Every structure is written in C-alpha cells, then in structure tokens.
Request: fold
Amino acid sequence: MKKLVYLAALLGVAAGLFAFLPKEGEATGYMMIVGQYDGTKTVYLSTITVDGQKTVEEIKTTGSKINKLADLHQAELTKINKLSREHWQVISATSSSLSATPGAFVVSDMVENVYTLRRQ
Reply:
C-alpha cells in the first residue's frame, strides 16, 4: 500500500513539473524596451522583440519636463509589468541623459532608458 502512495506522489510531482517546461513555439531570447524623451512634448516607448520587430508608441504629455519624465517612467513600468506577467524578466537597465547646462542641477533635456528582458 505504501508503495502505491509513493508511486502516486512521484507521478503527481512528475506531471506537475511538465507544466513549467517551455511551451513549443514560445519566443525565447531577449527583448528590449527603450523609453526616450527628446525635449519635445512627446515621449516615445519602443519595443524591440525577439525577432527584431520594432514598435514605437508615442505617449502624449503636457506640463513641465518633470511631468513628461514621470509619464515616461509610468509608461515604462506599465509595459515591464505587463511583460513580467508573460514571464519576461528585466536583466539589465541603463539610463542616459543629456543636459544643455553642464554641471547645474537641472532636469535633463534628453533622456533614454533601456531595459533588456529575458524570458524566464
């Protein structure tokens, strides 16, 4: 009787493990999310998929540079959270900015954030 219980438990565990194997046809590799603010009223959120397809989404903003940057970060976070539910994980994040006034504490004129994601 004990052998049947152990065998049933072992079969249950083995069946459960198959649920976590990658499905055939799922994209594997890396994806990039690029958020850009170029000093205009518009921020851009680009997605570069595993197969190299690039989509660019314009995000209309109003107000000060700080509000525009906040809208950019909100769009980036929303996109990353959506992709994390699809089993993508951020493995690298970089940010670069350029200011017309070097050395001063000002909000940057140009900002680019790049997130590299890998399927879990």
